[in-house]
Amino acid sequence: MNHPLITDELDLLHSLVDLEQQARIIELGCGAAQLSRKLLDRFPLCDVSATEVDERQHAKNLQQPQERLSFLQAGAQAIPFADGRFDLALMLKSLHHVPLDLLDQALGEVHRVLRPLGLLYVSEPVFAGPHNEITRLFHDEEQVRAAALHALQSAVASGAWEQVSEVFFDVPVHYRDCAEFEQRLLDITYLDHQLNAATLAAVRERFEPHMGADGAYFERPMRVNLLRKIG
C-alpha cells in the first residue's frame, strides 16, 4: 500500500489537532525540539514545555531559548508537572527510547499530566523499508519499536485511552553519497555501537545499489497514533 509522502510533520499534526486554539503542550523526548520550535512560530496561542533526558542535548537546548518554549531535563516515566496541566502531549520518535520496563509507567505519566480528553500524539518509525534494512545493520530497533507499539495498544485496551486515529506516511530522505549517510547516521552512533570494519563494509555494500546520478533516495515509513485520554 502506498502511503502519502510528508516532508513537514507539523502539517500532519495540524490536520489531526486544532493548533489554532490556545493549547498547553508538552513534548517528551524533544531532542532539539525542531517541530515544537516550528509549531510556536506558526501558532502563537500555543506554549510548549519540552523535556529531554540526555544531559548534553538539554544543555544545547538551553543555549537556544525561544519565546513560549521551556526546557526541562526529565524522562517520560517521571514527568515533573502537576496533574491535568496539558492539553496535548507529543512524542516524536521518542516512545521506543523509553526503557522497555518503564513504557507502561511513561504512558501512565502522560495520562496523568493531560487534562480530561487531552490528546497524545505519538509518531514512531515503522520497522520496514530499504532504509531500515541498512540502518538495522548497526542499530537494530525491531524489539524496542514493537514494544512501543504494544504498549500503546495495551494502553487503549485498558480503557484509559481511546484511539482517535492511526495514520501511516512516508518521509523522503536523500543522501548525496554513502559518505553523507555515514556522516549523518554512522558517525553519531560510532562509540555507542562499536562499529567495526566488517559492519561498515556491509553497510556500504547495501547502500550502493540505491545510488543514482544525483545520490540515493529513500522513503522512511512512519506511523502516527493519536490517543484521547479517558477519565
Q: Mind explaining what this structure looks like?
A:
This protein has 8 helices and 8 strands, in the order αβαβαββαβααβααββ. It has helices at residues 9-16, 34-42, 55-62, 103-113, 130-135, 142-157, 178-193, 197-207; strands at residues 23-28, 46-52, 69-73, 86-92, 114-125, 161-175, 211-212, 215-229. It has a domain at 9-126 and 141-171 and 222-229: Rossmann fold. Helix 4 (103-113) crosses helix 6. The protein is globular and about 50 Å long. The longest helix has 16 residues, at 142-157. The mean pLDDT is 94.
Short description:
The protein has eight helices and eight strands, in the order αβαβαββαβααβααββ. By secondary structure, the chain is α/β, with parallel strands linked by helices. The model has no long low-confidence stretch (mean pLDDT 94).
Number of helical regions: 8
Would you count the extended β strands for me?
A: 8
End-to-end separation? 36 Å
**Low-pLDDT windows of residues:** none
- What is CATH's topology name of the domain at 9-126 and 141-171 and 222-229? Rossmann fold
Could you name the CATH homologous superfamily of the domain at 9-126 and 141-171 and 222-229?
Vaccinia Virus protein VP39
CATH class category name of the domain at 9-126 and 141-171 and 222-229: Alpha Beta
